[in-house]
Amino acid sequence: GAGAMGNSCSIPSVVVTLCRTLLALACAPLSCAAGAFTLLFSAPARIWVLAKEGDIKAWHAVILMALSFGLSLPIGGLVGVVFGLLTAMYGRNAPEEPFSTKPANYSRHAIPPEREVEAEKMKADNEFAFTFETTTFTDASDPARAVTTHAHVVKPKNLDSVKGVIVVQHGLHCHAGAPRTLKVALHMAKEGYIVYCPDAIGHGRSCGSWAVVESFEAIAQNLASVFGEIARRHQGKPLFLQGESMGGMLVLYSPFFMDSLALDRLDGIIAVCPALMVADDAGDPILEEFIRLWPMPMLKGLFPKFPATPGPRGNIFSSDEALNKAAQASVDADPLEYCGDTKFLTAMTFADNLLKERNRRAFIDKLETMDKPLLLMHGTDDKCVDVRCSREFYKGSKSSDKRILEFEGKSHVLLSENEETRAKFLSGMTDFADDLVQKKTEFAH
């Protein structure tokens, strides 16, 4: 009942949240018992794994095991009730904004384009030279869960001189219609490319809970599906992938999910400050380790939308105060840019893949095997994703045509920097694509 209510009613979100919370309190004895018995079994299992992997000494493990048997029931019972309350507020079917007076069925999809003031003005100022369209892609490969992806398309008015097609993938919490995504698309369209900017699942106007990244596989698979459809729509044209931050990681990962026809059509990859390493912003390591005593799939399913960690806010833009302020103001004014704390499921997805060095290394080793022309771009003062990971990737990549362009003293979002940096960043991407288009044309002749 509460799940359905969270999804489809027009009662204020705060009222639905209150009802769900009261229901959770009524079920507190069950939550208490479930929490106690879950921790009784999961804590020793976690301690055993840590000991086996060499993260803790054997005698530490023995002491911790003894403590876990004594403390699991009372602590697990108490935490079980807390988890029940968090599920009421931030569960899968909870309202998107649990404490707002907006209807419980309200979502970002209801936001009219007119509210995207800066982006709409950019389109109006450039409509004499470019065509702005939106399109959707439906991936029904999993019949149980069809995925609808929304995308912005920017085309030069003169289609006769089109050099190729570039798919631009935004980063975490951003979206395809954001002013900074649009700036990249406009530059590429001006240089003679048709540009597709898809909203990742859980972002912009695509499906999925807002700012929730369930798995890298799911969003990479979705980008691969979108790319395949774009390849079918544009036969004979050179095709490129460009992505920034999480998008930079996705353009490196998605080719592994492409069918052979789509993969053959991919002519080059541009990865900007790709998220191949992340800073640990979870705060308290003891709290983080306590959370890991519980079965992770269970927690991810219970309260995926819980705003868990501060995330990258405040450290992604230029270190120049005025430029930083302007970039932050643009983000704050954009109703489709998620500006809250990183949600629990998203934080765990990034932590599992990129914070555990063993997992990160296995992931990077896989990505490095892709032999496609590659351009890596990174600011050396990036406080969100360390430039070392791009250097490491460049060194290890099996690509027979790889280049790296570093921006000395610059931040994670290169478009938030001064005019000279922005121009170098934008022209660097289209110079790379132009070079590959020219080589392809010469080879064909």
TrEMBL record:
Pfam families: Hydrolase_4. The chain crosses the membrane at residues 22-41, 62-90. The keyword Iron does not apply. Residues 161-419 form the Serine aminopeptidase S33 domain. SUPFAM superfamilies: alpha/beta-Hydrolases (SSF53474). Keywords: Membrane, Transmembrane, Transmembrane helix. It comes from the Eukaryota. InterPro entries: AB_hydrolase_fold, Hydrolase_4, MAG_DAG_Lipase. Coiled coil: none annotated. Signal peptide: none annotated. This is Serine aminopeptidase S33 domain-containing protein. It comes from Chloropicon primus.
